[in-house]
Design brief:
CATH topology of the largest domain: Tetracycline Repressor, domain 2
Strand content: under 5%
CATH architecture of the largest domain: Orthogonal Bundle
Number of strands: 0
Largest sheet: none
Number of domains: 2
CATH class of the largest domain: Mainly Alpha
Distance between the termini: 24 Å
Length: 228
């Protein structure tokens, strides 16, 4: 059965262009961080690499560390959207595992080469408090969105009636699903961070991010995901 969980409304053309510019800056920043290191890279260097003026850079980001937030957020958003897209009759654990398999498996959610960028950016975050704060803020925002997705999935799975668009737009996240989202997010985040800081472990091996995340979720098999 296909998913009936609603997708977010499409952004306007202006919003999409701003998002594209933010991502272009983020890629330029990541490239410089990988090649030269965080400390040696200035905001002006990022602006030059992105083909924009420094003042334009500061319209989008307050610091050079914040410039990679869109890349962190893109990965986190893919995971949440994959959970949203899981079959409607999947249980919470099944939907979470669906999300992992469709985003953390190299070649499915992200290419194998892109995982090397992920590894480097997470290692930089591990070593730099400012960058670690950016990563933590992205994870917190993703956790909130995951809670909303789980709440919407619960509503669409209800047997009483088919929810209206208004129902889905106004759905609140119950406390148990907030907790479930926090637990699931921590399990996946710990897996990705453990892989990134463990040396040159292949992303597609038994110690890769997908397998580690599935293992972490497996440990939580008895967690009361469906409590109401």
């Amino acid at each position: 059965m296909s998913s009936t969980t609603p997708t977010p409304p499409q952004a306007s053309l202006t919003e999409r262009r701003k998002a594209e510019t933010r991502m272009e800056i983020a890629r330029a920043a990541a490239g410089l961080f990988v090649r030269h290191g965080l400390r040696a890279t200035r905001a002006e260097d990022i602006a030059q690499a992105a083909g924009i003026a420094p003042r334009t850079f500061y319209r989008y980001f307050a610091t050079k560390e914040e410039a990679v937030a869109p890349l962190y957020a893109a990965g986190a958003q893919r995971w949440v959207e994959a959970v949203r897209a899981a079959p409607a009759d999947d249980s919470v654990p099944q939907a979470l595992e669906h999300g992992v398999r469709h985003t953390l498996t190299p070649g499915v959610g992200v290419s194998a080469s892109s995982w090397e960028w992920v590894r480097t950016l997470l290692r930089l975050a591990e070593a730099n408090p400012s960058l670690r704060r950016v990563w933590a803020e992205v994870c917190q925002a993703s956790e909130r969105t995951l809670g909303e997705v789980l709440a919407a999935r619960r509503l669409t799975a209800g047997p009483a009636r088919t929810p209206t668009t208004t129902d889905l737009d106004n759905v609140a996240t119950p406390s148990d699903l907030r907790f479930a989202a926090a637990v699931a997010s921590a399990a996946v985040r710990a897996a990705v961070e453990s892989w990134a800081t463990a040396g040159d472990v292949p992303a597609d091996g038994p110690e890769g991010p997908a397998e580690l995340a599935l293992r972490n979720l497996g440990v939580l098999r008895d967690f009361p995901w469906e409590s109401r």
